[in-house]
Amino acid sequence: MNYLIRFCIVSVLGFSPIFLIAQNLSGTVKDAKTGEPLIGATVKVEGTELGSITDVDGRYMIKDIPTETQTIVASYVGYNTRKRFGVVIRSGGNPDLNFELEESVSELQDVVVTANPFEKLEETPLSIQRLSREEVATYPGGNNDIARVVQSLPGVSGSIGGFRNDVIIRGGAPNENVYYLDGVEIPNINHFATQGSAGGPVGMLNVSFFEGVTLTASAFGAQYDNVLSGVLQFDQRNGNARELKTNIRVGASEAALTMEGPLFKGKDNEESKTTFIASARRSYLQFLFQLIDLPILPDYWDYQYKLSHEIDKYNELIFTGIGSIDNFGINVPEEFSPEQQATLEQVPVINQWTTTSGLTWKKRFKDNSGYLNTTLSTNILNNDFTRFRDNVNQTDPYFDNQSQEWETRLRLNMTKFAGNWVLNAGLVGINADYSNTTRNLVDGFIYSTDLNFFRYGIHGQASTKIGDERLGISAGFRMDGNTFTTTGNEIFRTFSPRLAISYQLDADRKWSLNASAGRYYKIAPYTILGFRNQTGSYENEDIDYIQSDHLVAGVEYLLNPSARITVEGFYKKYSDYPVSLSTGVSLANLGGGFEVLGNEPVASIGEGETYGVEFLFQQKFTKNFYGILAYTYYYSQFTGLDGKYRPSVWDNRHLLTFTGGYQFGNNWEIGVRTRYLGSTPFAPVDRDATLANYPEILLEYDQLGATRLDPFNQTDIRLDKKWNFKNFTLNLFLEFQNVLASNIPSPPEFGLARTDDGTLIEPRQLVQIEDIDNSATLPILGVVIDF
Predict the structure, then answer these.
(1) Is the bond leading into 187 cis (omega within 30 degrees of zero)?
(2) Domain that holds residue 587
(3) DSSP string of 154-181?
(4) Letter string b/e over residues 655-675, b meaning 16 or more CB atoms within 10 A of that residue's CB
(5) Which of 17, 149, 323, 373 is buried most deeply by CB count within 10 Å?
(6) Which helix (DSSP H) or strand (DSSP E) does residue 345 occupy?
(7) Taking a C-beta distance cutoff of 8 angstroms, is the pair 602, 202 a contact?
(8) Structural Rg of the chain based on CA atoms
(9) CB within 8 A of 68, min separation 6: which ones?
(10) How far apart are CA 584 and CA 686, in angstroms?
(11) In whole angstroms, what is the distance from residue 654 CA to residue 642 CA?
């Protein structure tokens, strides 16, 4: 699999004349609690006299802003002033910049209170991180891939070797997270997704869509179901309401076209009530890999769209969706090498497509007492996954999985304001349809299934601030059930309470203490629920919900209006984790490779725990610099069939990340990302069992933790240059991944012994392939055009 990271593109940067062109910026200013437009709010470009006042709809427009990176400030009498750092002004058009202001608790006149620029809610006062649109788009080493960008946030790591987009949060498995696109749940965010999990080698979300990305690593709001480790929310912006705009991006692995604009605008209207934004992306990895004679050919398409319609000032409809088409094929190299031959023999052939779409009705009550969000959505994962004993001719399959997961969801979420209290309640209903035909000749599982059942859940939460609003308290619960598992309708079994407390220690509100405790549940993947035994019965019908109890506490200090330091301690205790009855390993240790997770008999007997401490320094973009420095020291361990605790495959112990950027004059910017992960445990190959079943690779999971990989470290540097022409903006970036040429560790690889010309040696022997040097620096040139 090292071939996924062993290619390069060599190009030459060109230069063009610089045009200093001013541009306009518009958006809205609203009450953060009620969503009511704020009339007469002031929006200014910090350090200049440029500004605007909002109209009766809360809209503003600032004209003739220099095309540079700016800090924009919004203020209103009786509300906390809010700053947006690192706003890039382009001549090719700028997305709306919207503000939500909170009422100020200060009753003194002529006192300006600036809001905390780091997002924090009563129900989630800690373990929350947010990246802005510009931070995501220019992330060094991210390759415009949000899933890869998220891996640099505090407490987040990737899978072994670092080439996949698995999101490992504080030692939890990659399938313990949930993902939301404007409130619509999406089951996975990657191409070639691991069924039953969520990771894959390439992300499928388009960064051109996003207003921001929010990660919550604990203290989850009660409205989120099926989550054990993390909630990732992707907030999409609306399309341009005034004119048609286009974005073209060419990167290391794909080309993307994004268009946005108004619909049904009419000649007499300055802005339309209906907008769209849509994109399509096409990979060219398959051409590059074939050109440099690699044995795998990853080929993918994806699309994304959002249609927004403002019915009136109290009602809005949003139709959004995403989809992908993935094909993972085989290429026979012209020249033989042991690594290429092993990869050619062992990789699966994957044909996969996914689609998610959702319609949301946002209704704000006319008396400003709350709002109601109703979402109807559907998502499908169609997976054709085959392993052949002869990949070249695609004959003699020994594992074949043809399956489809189809969910239809109705989600209701209502928020009401009662004095100083915010009350939230809702429900969700999910129709789940799962079909699968599996032939696993290694383990002797051959079955077909067609499972349909109903999932449901209810939740409630209450939050308030007291004591001059320095003490914040939030308490909530949720319960979930289903009509399939043996105890699924006994919803009291999944009663999951949660409590969060925050207290601001000083009058200046620089110091705050935060703590939360909660219990969370997750239903087993459909691959587990739908598995049938040889008699045709559902083998895992008595499976329990996985349980995780969280306890987190920390302190935050605001160094200045744009910088903070936080320290948090966390503990997660797992119960009823599925354990494989075939291999004896907890499924918490799986899901980070090319496989089908959970397609086997299991038992709900696994235990686990992860715990540690986390330090964070974060500087928003000020004085031409932004940066995030985070260090997490943690343990992660789970029990298998024998009940013995062993380190998990995510137990790196040390996780250090730094990401920062500096802007020079004339729209030059440099960004740096450094990641260090401690040694990673791995299960060694069972050589005898593998030789008997080759090309299937079988592992000795009872030896997990006995051996570890060397620490992983990688430094990436990205250089950006923007040119603002009269009608468009050109952004060129040159990125050097692994600039220090560090060797990327990976578990030992094995293949059959062959002669120098590739002839198989008889009798067959399993031999370890000589370690491959992965220390090359990878240069990447990218182009982004906005017009």
Answers:
(1) no
(2) 2-7+125-786
(3) TTEE-STTS-S---EETT--GGGEEEEE
(4) bbbbbbbebeeebebebbbbb
(5) 149
(6) helix 338-346
(7) no
(8) 26
(9) 89, 667
(10) 14
(11) 28
> CB of 194 within 8 A of CB of 593?
yes
pLDDT attached to residue 577: 97
Q: Does any domain span residue 112?
A: no
And the tokens for 631? 């260090």
Q: Are 227 and 560 in contact (CB under 8 A)?
A: no
| Class of residue 644 by CB neighbours under 10 A (exposed 0-12, middle 13-18, buried 19+) | exposed
pLDDT at res. 119: 64
Three-class secondary structure of residue 762 per DSSP: coil
Query: With a threshold of 0.70, does the pTM exceed it?
Result: yes
Beta bridge partners of 79: 103
Q: In the chain, which residues have pLDDT < 50? A: 1-19, 107-111
Task: State the virtual CA torsion across 490, 491, 492, 494 in degrees, nearest 10.
Answer: 120
Assess if residue 397 is contained within a domain.
yes
**Positive/negative CA dihedral, 549, 553, 558, 559:** negative
Cα separation, 586 vs 228, in Å, equals 15
CA distances from 686 to 583, 584, 703, 706, 766 (A): 12, 14, 10, 14, 10
Closest CA to 636 of 158, 167, 157, 171: 171
Is the residue at 280 inside a domain? yes
Tokens standing for residue 550: 């969280």
Please, which residues bridge with residue 498 across strands?
Answer: 476, 518
In three-state secondary structure terms, 62 is strand
Answer whether residue 106 is part of any domain.
Answer: no
> In what helix (H) or strand (E) does residue 340 lie, and over which residues does it extend?
helix 338-346
SS3 424: strand
Distance CA 494, CA 36 (A): 37
Are 495 and 241 contacting, i.e. CB atoms less than 8 angstroms apart?
Answer: no
212 membership: H or E segment, kind and range: strand 210-216
* Cis amide prior to 763 (ω within 30 degrees): yes
Looking up tokens 């004119």 gives 243
Nearest residue to 591 (alpha-carbon basis) of 648, 522, 637: 648
| Residue 672, both tokens | 């740096």
- Which residues are 480's β-sheet partners? 457
Of 145, 148, 128, the residue nearest 137 (C-alpha): 145
* DSSP annotation of 623: T
Any bridge partners for residue 730, and if so which? 723, 785
CA distance 329 to 345: 12
Q: Do residues 295 and 339 touch, judged by C-beta distance below 8 A?
A: no
What is d(CA 335, CA 292) in angstroms, rounded to the nearest whole number? 11
* Location of structure tokens 């207290």: 503
Dump the DSSP string for 636-705. EEEE-TT--EEE-TT--SEEEEEEEEEE-STTEEEEEEEEEE---EEPPB-HHHHHHHTTS--B-GGGTT
CA distance 722 to 43: 25
The Cα–Cα gap between 756 and 423 comes to: 71
Number of H helices, E strands in the chain: 6, 43
The domain that holds 366 is classified in CATH as 2.40.170.20
Cα separation, 172 vs 151, in Å, equals 13
| CA atoms of 64 and 45, how far apart (whole Å) | 11
Give, as one character, the DSSP assignment of residue 531. -
CA distance 750 to 698: 11
pLDDT attached to residue 5: 36
Instruction: Report the C-alpha gap between 517 and 504 in whole angstroms.
Output: 19
Structure tokens at 452: 């349909």
Q: Which two tokens stand for residue 623?
A: 């004085």
Asked whether 191 and 354 are in contact (CB, 8 A), the reply is no
Gap between the Cα atoms of 192 and 349, Å rounded: 10
Give dist(CA 237, CA 173) in Å, integer.
Answer: 30
* Burial class, 492, CB count within 10 angstroms (exposed 0-12 / middle 13-18 / buried 19+): exposed
Total domains in the fold of the chain: 1
H or E stretch including 475?
A: strand 471-482
